[in-house]
Structures are given as structure tokens and as C-alpha cells.
Amino acid sequence: MHPHTMDVRPSPRRALLLALALLMSACKTPSATGGGTSPGSSSGSSSQGRGEDVPQGDPFPSKPSVEARQDAQADQALAQAIQQAETAPRKQAAESFLAVRKAYPQTTAGQEALYRAGVLFYDSQDYVNARKSFNELLFENPLHPQATEAKRRLGRSALEVGAYRDAYQTLYSLAERAEGAERIQLLEDSVKAAEKAGLFGQALRISVDLAGNAQTPEAQQAAVARVQQLVEGRAGFMDVAQIMEELSPSNPAWPVLTFKLARIYYHLRDWTRLEETLNRFLAEAPNHTFAPQARELLARATRRVDVQTKTVGLLLPMTGKYKAVGEAVLRGVKLALAGSDIELVVKDTQGDVNLAAQGMEQLAFDEGAIAVLGPITTDESRRAALVAEELQVPLLTLTRQEDITNIGPFIFRNMLTNSAQARAIADFAMKQKGFKSFAMLYPNLPYGVELANDFWDHVVENGGQVRGAETYAHDQTTFTSEAKKLVGRYYLEDRLDYIEGVREVQKETTGQDAFRRRKAMEKMKGQVEPIIDFEAIFIPDEWRRVSLVAPALAVEDIVTNACDSRDVERIRKTTGKKTIKTVMLLGTNAWSSSKGASGMPELVERGGKFVTCSVYVDGFFVDSQQPATQRFVKAYRQANSGDPGLLEAYGYDSARMVRQLLDSKQAPKSRGEFREALANVKDFDGATGKTSFDEKREARKPLFLLSVSNKGVTEVPPEKSASLGGS
To answer: Do both 213 and 121 map to the same domain?
Structure first.
């Protein structure tokens, strides 16, 4: 079989090489021989991508470093060692030869003894000593009569002991000068060494060479199979592109590499070169096993611009641990699209980033969706957004992840975020209530820390101060220490009034017994006034924890139910104080709770008077008096059992916005037009409020401010919010 030659016709792959070379150091284009290029001259190997040098050429010197002389005594000693080796065990015989080498180091007999010791070590599978012997011989005399055989055994010894880079260099340098079956064997050993050394580019080039020069169908099949294995996640795309630049279609590995290159173009979204590559593949190898996949990929590429103007995609976790979340959103979406001619195509992400990306591609290529809603979870939303931006498909995501829209102009978001909640509750406290000083109690969880930081930043930006901040464990159930620290009752030894109190007690109890002195000291400690230098406390935690925190604050004389005038008057009479400093508790949508046995929210049932007069923020309120919210709640109750929540509401509004655009007289006919139309949505009156998209494609809307009283939770109208709580 004749060696295959390289195709020298100009190829658009050169453009890929130029683009990819921006990320890698430029090297000289490799020369071509037979069915592939010289592995030792690769300029884009995966190993170089890791900053390593690819071993090249014969590792040994070209001239002897020692002038070996002939010595009669040395020759006689060698002859005796040879005679003894005929009956002695191999390792013992090898030691005899090493003794000759040691006694006559710079003689021809000494070098021959070293070679024979290496052979015996090799045959007894002592590859460490075999490698040591052959290395010593070849560096001393690379022109030894048995140098080639020594190198062959040295390379295979290196392969056996795991010195793969050395094995590759030695074996491949031999293969370049070998012929016939010996060359094939050396190349196959070189491939093994290169793979083990992580030199996948070199292994791929040799395998392509073997495929092109195989003498039997079985050998050709094995070489092509190895090529296919290497291109699947091992050899780098630069390796594939460079080999393809010079490879002839007559090489049996050509279809495998060509189809791999097409998939690279697909992931690079280089549609023009993808189509060129697939068309050439089908022209040259129409009956190859990859041909059906190539046709499907080509069809998918051509469908990318085919848009179904009434098809909308939805990415949700319909199975797995987030199933309930996905089902909630789906209920809202279906309600919004009920009665329309819009086709909804749902893809189950299972909360998995790979399935989210796959679903996004299917909706774009196979379904022709003009836009996509979802996903929800952070990781899958980011992955889907990256794919959507690459494919330029408008994506209205429902994730809380901050800055998701920074991925690109086709990414929108409509969901309640932590930063929006922190900004809304801070604006309420500072702009409507006029508060300037705050404290914070928050769980040591990403949710609590992020909200606390956002709230603090917004307070400072608006000229306020955070006077105290305490954190606690996420599973904590008692909060006495945190409450004491907040009002200066924990580190009493740092307070001058306490130090003076101690001195006074010591003075008054001089001569009294220890019991009376201790009681007097405890009474004095209990009378130390709390330092309440803040007007509100921000607690970004879920309602169960809040119902435990609030009573702990009351124990430290922090009065939080300012709107209950009767209780405030009772406290004033009990303490004998003319004025009572009151504090408002502020929270997030995690305060929202379902109704308990009494019909009241569980937050109120458990927290009692200690949570009344508090205000928290949410993205949806089922009992809101806003007309759009009431219409949604009524429609939802008619279609489903139970009340809707935040997820249903945001799913509803997102789908309703899409429906409004697609049902308009000037409905968008392309994804680009839809993107522009969605970006220009202003004051959409939905279940979650009036929504507009800002310049970053973030949904902006006034959030629901909710007040807690002993009668339940009610919405705070803007005109009444200034009269709530605090003093």
C-alpha cells in the first residue's frame, strides 16, 4: 500500500488556525511525511498548551564521549563472563558483566559487558537496571555496534517504568529511521508512550500516519479507532486543525478528523465553515458511519435561522430535586398562555447545567423558538444564558443570580433579586420613614451575607449609618448573646457606667456576705441601660428564625411593636420611663409564611407581638389590592387548587409579556426583532407590579411592602407607610 500524500489545496481551516493561534504561541508549520506530519515538530500540541516542551530527536550525543581502547585482560574477563552466563541465572550473569565493566571502564570489552548486562536485565524484566545500563552505554558510545538494539530496549524499558516522555522520544527517533514491520511496531509503541505522557497531539499524528500506511485492513481499522479515541476529548482542537490542514481525503482517518473539525466549528458557532466542512465530508465520504450525523448537523445548522414566530421555549426542572419549583413556574406560564395560539415547548433541565445547555440548543435549532423563558437555578441559568447569547436567542430568565444579563444583549431577567429587596427596604426606611441609623442581625449563609452587604451599601450611599451588625449560625435557635452585643450588654467591662456601678456595689456591700454581694451585683447588671443607637434592625432570614430572634430582642429591652400604643404605654408605666425608644424590624421575602391553624400567617402565630409593626418586602402578595394582581389571583384560583406564590406570579408575568409582544399588530418576525421589542417593554401591568426593562435588561418594578400586625399581614400603601412604627 502506498503512503498517502497531503492535500495541498487552500483550505478555510487556515482561518481557524489563525484564530486559535491567538491563544497559543506561534510556531513553525510542521512538515509532512506519509499520512501525517512529524509529531516531533507539532506547533499546537496539547502538551505545549500546558507550557511543556515536546521532546524531539535522538536524545543521545552524535559522537562517543569516551575513546574506548582494546585491552587483552578486559577481553579475557569478558570471555569468562560470557561463559559463566550460559549456566548462571540472568541477574547473577548481569552482575558478572557489570563487574567486568567496573574493572575495565574505558575499554571495548567494558562497553560490550555493559550492553550484555542491560540485555539480561531487560530479559528478566528488571527494567530499572536495564534502563540504567543502556543509558550509560549510549551516552558514552552512541556508535556502539548494538546501539540501535540498545535504544529499542531502552525505549521499551522507559515505557515499562513510567518514564513516558523519555520512552516517546527514544522510540519515535528510532521509528523515523526504521522500515517495514519494525517501523510499525516502533510507531505503535510511540503512540502508547505519547498517550501516557499526555502528548496527545503527537499520539494523534502518529496514529494518522499508521492509518495511512497500514498494510492490512485490521491494522488500518485499529489505527482509525485509535484516532477516533484521541480526538474525543484528548487531542486539542489545534492538533486536529493542523493535521487536517495537510491531510488528504484518501487517508482512512480523514472522515474522523473532518467530522471532529465540523463539531469544533459548531461549538465556535462558525456556521459558514461548518457548512463548508460538512458538505465536503458528505461529498468525500457519503457512506461513512458518521454520514447520518453529519447530515443531521448540517440540517440543524441550516435551521438556525428558521424561526417559528409563535413558538416559545421553556427551560424548567420538571424532575429531580427542583421539580416543585419547576411545576410552580409552569402553572403560571400555562395560565398566561391559555387561549392563545402560542405553542409552548418545555424542556426538562432536571437542575443540570448540561441539560440546560442541551435544551437551549434544541429549542433554538430543532423547535425554532423565537424566545425562551427560564431557567431558574443559578448554574443552569448561566449555562443556558451563555448558549442563548451565542445563538442570539432572546432568553428571559427567572434566576436570582446577580448580573446574569451582563452575559450579553439577548439575556433578560424577570425575578426578585437580593439586591432589589435590599434596595427597596432601605429606600422605604430612609426615604419614607426618615431613618438614618440601623443595626443588622443576619445568618452566616450566602443569602444572609449578600443581603446584609447590599443593605449596608445602600444605607451608606444614601447618607445613613449601620451602628451594629451581628451574625449567627444558620441553625441557631437562641439569640441572647447576639441581642446583648447589639445593645452593648455583652462586653460590660468596656462600659464606664458599668465600671462605676461595680465600684458603687462594692462600696455599698462592704462587710456583707458573698451571697448579698453577688445579688447586689446581679441587680446592678440588670439595670444597665441598653445602648439603642439605631432606629431599625434589618433581619434577612426566613420567618421561623425571625420568630425566635424578635423575642430575644425584647428581653434586652428593645421595643419593636411601636404601632401598638397600648403595649408601649404599658411598658412606659412598668419601667417608669417618660419616653420609650422603639425600633422597627425590617425583613425580606423570606419572612412570608403560609397560614397556620388560626388562619393567620405562621410568622404572626409564632412571633406574636414581638413581630408586629415590622415591615418586610416581597415580589408578590396574594392579598394585594392592586387590580392586576387581583385578576391574576382570581384566574389562578379558578384554574388550580390553592393560592399562587411568587414563582407562579413571575412565571405568569414573564409569559404574559411574551404573549403581549407576539399578539401585537407589529409582532416580531425574527429573534432580533423580538429582542428589541422586549427591551422596550415599559410599565407592563402584571401580577408582580408594573414592569419595565432597564438598559441592562433587568426588570424594574416597585416591590410589595408588607406590614405585620396582630391581625395578619397587609400591604403598605405609599401614602400610609410614613405613619408606621418607629419613634
So the answer is: no
**Could you give the CA distance from residue 208 to residue 225 in angstroms, rounded to a whole number?**
10
**Between 418-427 and 446-461, two packed helices, what is the crossing angle to 10 degrees?**
40
> Is-contact 28 43, C-beta < 8 A?
yes
Torsions phi, psi of 69, nearest 5? -115, 160
pTM over the 0.90 mark: no
**All three cell numbers of 558:** 428593645
One-letter-per-residue 3-state SS of 368-390 = CEEEEECCCCHHHHHHHHHHHHH
- Tracing cell 540485555 back to the chain, one arrives at 119
- Whether 167 and 193 have beta carbons less than 8 Å apart is answered as yes
Range(s) of the domain holding residue 439: 419-489+530-618
Whole-number Cα distances in Å, 327 to 320, 330, 644: 11, 5, 12
Residue 335 and residue 263 in one domain: no
Radius of gyration for the alpha carbons in the chain, expressed in angstroms and rounded? 39
Are both 290 and 376 inside the same structural domain?
no
Using CA atoms, how far apart are residues 671 and 662, in angstroms rounded to an integer?
A: 11
CA distance 197 to 469: 55
684-724 pLDDT tens trace: 999 999 999 999 999 999 999 999 998 999 999 865 544 44
Question: By CB neighbour count within 10 A (0-12 exposed, 13-18 middle, 19+ buried), where does 9 fall?
Answer: exposed
Where are the strands (E) in 539-678, listed by range?
Answer: 584-587, 615-618
Specify the number of domains making up the chain: 4
Q: Model confidence at 62, in pLDDT bands (50, 70, 90)? A: confident
- In DSSP terms, which residues pair with 343 in a beta bridge? 311
The whole-number average pLDDT for the span 292-298 is: 95
> What span, in angstroms and rounded, lies between the C-alpha atoms of 410 and 413?
10
Specify whether the CB–CB gap between 608 and 567 falls below 8 A: no
- Both 649 and 673 in one domain: the answer is yes
Give the CA dihedral 275, 277, 279, 284, nearest 10 degrees. Answer: -170
Whether residue 267 is contained in a domain is answered as: yes
In a domain, 718, yes or no: no
